[in-house]
Amino acid sequence: MGIMNGKVCIVTGGAGSIGLAAAIKKIVLFIITFVLSTSLIVSLQRDVLGGSEDSCRSFVQSFYDWYVPNRLTKHGAALDIVLNDRSQYFSSELHRLLREDIDAQKKVTGVIVGLDFDPFLASQDFSDRYTTGKIVVKAGSYWVEIYRVSDGKKESTPALKAELVFNNGQWNFINFHYSKTDLLSLLKLLRKNRQESPDFSIR
To answer: Which residues span the domain enclosing 28?
Structure first.
């Protein structure tokens, strides 16, 4: 309230208007911060998961397109080749256990102490082509169905499922899942059996 030209003048607004403007400003800043943080979280999730299923599918398909011809022509040596030339494709744990298994088998004859099938094809008898199917995201990893293609036709059920994660700009296989078990579990069981066998000196 004030006096201007002898008249009483009441000024409205003042502190109340300032308080309302400050409140609106805080709300706007909160909304902007929320939107930006949500976008950042989504971006980080996409980085962790590799960004898209297409990226994952392309990686897995290219691996099988490279590996299967090598497996058919170079037989057991293909496993050595993939672990030596494509080591970056596997998690450190899976690579280490596969290497231990292969090396253990090389040191003995007349007895099987390691895997007796191809871990990436889930069989002793191979098709000449494999293709990807449905992809499911589980707890931050991608599970990719792998199908045999026989006589140009994709089989009705997947031969196995490859499990991958995306780390530091690179897809990594971390496990392969079969109908009743998985590769990591088998490798650990075989290693345990070798360690406990009195007739097997490789540790």
So the answer is: 2-48
